[in-house]
Amino acid sequence: xxxxxxxxxxTLAAVADEGSFxxxxxxxxxxxxxxxxxxxxxxxxxGGAVFDRPGGPKPVRITPLGTVVxxxxxxxxxxxxxxxxxxxxxxxxxxRIDIGTFQSVSNVLLPHVVRQLREEHPGCDIRLFxxxxxxxPVDKVDLMFFDGRVAGDIEHLKLLDDPYVLVAPRGAFxxxxxxxxxxxxxxxxxxxxxxxxxxxEQLFATNDVHPHIVFRAAGNEAVLAMVxxxxxxxxxPRLVLTTPDPALSIHDLxxxxxxxxxxxxxxxxxxxxxxTKRTIAIATEVASHFQAQLTPATANA
Length: 301
Fold this sequence. Notes:
Elements: H1 6-18, H2 21-28, H3 32-46, E1 51-52, E2 61-62, H4 64-91, E3 96-101, H5 103-120, E4 125-130, E5 143-146, E6 154-162, E7 164-169, E8 178-179, E9 187-190, H6 197-206, E10 212-216, H7 220-229, E11 234-237, E12 248-251, E13 253-254, E14 260-267, H8 274-293
Parallel strand pairs: 3-4, 3-5, 8-13, 9-10
Antiparallel strand pairs: 1-2, 5-14, 6-14, 7-11, 7-12
Helix pairs in contact: 1-2, 1-3, 1-4, 2-3, 5-8
């Protein structure tokens, strides 16, 4: 049975359906002699005749052995066709992709990436995982958005530089940049000491500025809500604030803090699917669009 080939089984099915070698040849685009060769090779492999050939205009008849071969052969053909279709979809960018992300990317960049992927590949299976751990579990996903470089066998693609800005209740500060020293003992709303917050607090400490932290919340919306309420100001990445808010003013800080770097990560040496490659390209395009928006802040932003 090791000599049975799918093309021989396909020829068997065509002859059984058409009732003659000639019509099967026309259907398959073969010569009639090629059809005869395929059937002869199949009969040699299975050890007996798969068709009775009455000759003349009478149709060929499948034998009991041929019926057994054909019943299993059709299953093989169906599986082969399904695999071919799946491979075609995979090569066209369908399939599954697992993406790791974090809050500001989830809220701002990623919806644009997902929307374009689904428009281009409606049948793709996109799985998203939000993870704020440091270092992130890059090995568990196809792609990981992260705000920093990660040690190990990991590829890094820098997407954008995200400046830190001061977000305040409108009218709390004059228009324009704000000196960092103006925040000494000022009421501030902040994240817990995770994610970006250690960078912000290191900035304060380096400049001998000690704000009065009046509230901590592990969520950008909660921090912004408290700033809107007038509880205090906050230092946040600019990407968090891409939508204008009349209740808030946004100010550059002097001296300017180092910018947050946002990367797309993936394990080194891993073969990427066409869908993953397309996701990288789309993420790069989307990030480039937003980078143009992350210009120096103004009080009217």
